[in-house]
Amino acid sequence: MKLVAFVKKDILVALSYRFRLLLDLAGSLVSLLILYFIGRTFTTAISPYLQPYGNDFFSYVLVGIATANFVTVGLSALADEIRSAQVQGTLEFLLATPTSIYTILIGSTLWSFISSFISAAGLLTLGAIFLDFHVSLNAVLFSLLILLLTFIAFLAIGMLSASFVIIFKQGNPIEYIFGWSSFLLGSVIFPVEVLPRPFQLIAQILPISHAVRALRGLLLAEYTVGDVLSSMINLCIFILVLAPVGGLFLRFAVNRAKRDGNLVQY
Amino acid sequence: MQNAISILNLSKTYRIPSVLPWRKSRRVPALSHVQFDCPAEKITCLLGPNGAGKTTIIKILAAIVLPEEGDVTVLGESVFKGTAALRQRIGLLTPNERSFFWRLTGYQNLDFFTSLYGLTGKKKKNRIAEVLSLVDLEPDAKKPFRLYSSGMKQKLSLARALLPKPRVFLLDEPTTHLDPLARAEIHRLIKEVIVQESRATVLICTHDLAEAQKLADHIVLLDKGTVLAEGSMQGLREKLYTGHRVVLEFERIPEQGWLQGLQVMDVRSSDKQAAIEIQDLSTVPDIVDAAVRMGGRVSRCIQEDKSLEEIFSDFTRTAE
User: Fold this and answer.
1) Which of B85, B96, B117 sits opposite A92 (nearest CB)?
2) In a domain, A266, yes or no
3) With b meaning 16 or more CB within 10 Å and e meaning fewer, what string describes A67-84?
4) pLDDT classification of B260: cutoffs 50, 70, 90
5) Could you tell me which chain B residue has the CA closest to the CA of A15?
6) Total H helices, total E strands in chain A
7) Which of A93, A113, A185, A194 has the most other CB atoms within 10 Å of its CB?
8) What pTM does this model have?
9) Topology of the domain comprising B242-319
10) What pLDDT is attached to residue B187?
11) Domain ranges of chain B
């Protein structure tokens, strides 16, 4: 119920900024149109990398961008929420309630995830209705499962990221490293296969590569669950490795900040 | 239980990182071997100037800051274990009005925080209605917090602290920035609602002596991170100041050195007036005699109580 309270509070806060909501919506629509017209530019070009996905660049990049937006939120939401709670001054009181730091952190980021999920789903739906985005509806359920695994994997990385914000306040290397590498190497806009071999190997240790590959396979290439099973297993391995590490780092950071007395400083 | 809060040998330093990365950070002492108790169901005032370490003690009690040394128990449980059950029994009021969500209404803020205290459904609604009624904020509950006056914000802070029906209240500067009427209202709420009705224990941090005088059953005088003295207001007064003050007003001022040979503790002279601190009132006739002998003409001699502000500031200066 505490998590629901966080989401409810964040929805109320978001609704109180109506103009921003409107601008976000307009920005998403403009991005969608830009991607669509880039796709139209290359309609007649045939790329061997896009052939498994119907040689449709728009559909290819739309799934990539929708996933990347979701992942970006996962990476930055925890750290952003901590910083925002420090700046706003709410963190101190939240910590004084009988609520664990983990509940506070996850609760504070849930709305960001839900809104980015709604935004991603909205982009895909609008693309499907108006802009010839071809999607296999049968795969939607498993796509949601992959998104959930991606969410948990990036939440774990987010805990590492939040630990840096708690200790160093500003300057968060985790966000830079995973953010940049995810966009560059994660096959978000272009397939990683066009990059030199070493980069392709590095891409394998990024959760986004597996998430995007599985989602594109399910939504665009009518892969079966068996075809994306290896990607799902890889995401689970990421979670098993990253979640305890993230949790330990976070506990260390919170205890250190409590000792230094700067938990709520920014 | 006799003491609701026990603080034993508490020391805390803050780390100040060096601007130059190759230099070691330094540590600034905030508390040094602080030790005192807060009697149950009474109001204890932690009184001291800015930077005395009052807020650090509140933060340690609320388990937001960890000390280097010492032990702190609230209701018999160590706060460093940080159990949810203990936090459920502590109500916190901070002077930081930014600890609320400004875009939400007062009611929505309380709704959120009540959920964090584990209340749901009808129980939650009833509790919010109860605390809003206690602090008399029902008519303004649906207004956005950002439109609240300072007094309303402070009342909502108190309402929030009341939410979990705590047994111990930690109130850090509860009347900062309030006008006299709003201060009186907050004082009434603390005395009547928290202590008399709820029979809870209160620890208030303040630098305002009048506030301490009005509210406190027990005072802990803190300066530069150390406890200088503690006790009731009257007890402290007797402990810190054992003398008397006599003020002589002159029509004609006596010659210099007229007090030589007399047992006086301190003299402050101004134009045609001398405020003399003495240990024993029986020396007053000798003082008047000496003034007359040295050419002075005394128009008035009165005994004046030293104000508490003076007693505390003198004591703080002496302790330095």
Assistant:
1) B96
2) no
3) bbbbbbbbbbbbbbbbbe
4) confident
5) B103
6) 10, 0
7) A93
8) 0.80
9) Alpha-Beta Plaits (3.30.70)
10) 92
11) 38-67+76-238, 242-319
Residue A219 lies in a domain: yes
Q: What is the pLDDT of residues A25-79, one digit of tens each?
A: 888 888 888 878 887 777 666 677 777 776 778 888 888 888 888 888 888 888 8
Of the candidates B123, B100, B98, B122, the one whose C-alpha atom is nearest the C-alpha of residue B110 is B100
How many structural domains are present in chain A? 1
Distances A154 to A13, A216, A230 between C-alpha atoms, Å: 24, 19, 18
d(CA A186, CA A210): 8
Among candidate residues A73, A67, A34, A104, the one with its CA nearest the CA of residue A214:
A67
Percent of chain A with pLDDT over 70: 95
What are φ and ψ of residue B97, in 5° steps? -70, -10
Chain A neighbors of B62, CB-CB under 8 A: 95-96
What's at A253, amino acid-wise?
Answer: A
B179: pLDDT strictly greater than 60: yes
- DSSP letter, residue B293: H
Question: What confidence score (pLDDT) does residue B33 get?
Answer: 94
For domain B38-67+76-238, the CATH class is alpha beta
Tokens at B42, concatenated = 């009474």
Residues A196-234 have pLDDT tens digits of: 888 888 888 888 888 888 888 888 877 888 888 888 999
Select the residue of A5, A6, A260 nearest B15 (Cβ to Cβ). Answer: A260
The angle that helices A2-16 and B106-116 make with each other, rounded to 10 degrees, is: 160
Average pLDDT for B246-270: 87
Q: Which amino acid is at A207?
A: P
Residue B274 has pLDDT above 70, yes or no: yes
Give pLDDT, residue B111. 96
For residues B199 and B33, the answer to whether their CB atoms sit within 8 Å is no
Can you give the residue range of the structural domain that contains A142? 2-260
Cα–Cα distance between B135 and B126 in angstroms, integer?
15
Task: Assign residue A60 a region (left: φ > 0; alpha: ψ between -120 and 50; beta: otherwise).
Answer: alpha
Cβ-based interface (< 8 Å): residues of B facing A: 12, 14-15, 30, 56, 59, 62-66, 68, 84-85, 87-88, 90, 92, 94, 96-101, 103-104, 108, 111-113, 115-118, 120, 144, 160, 164
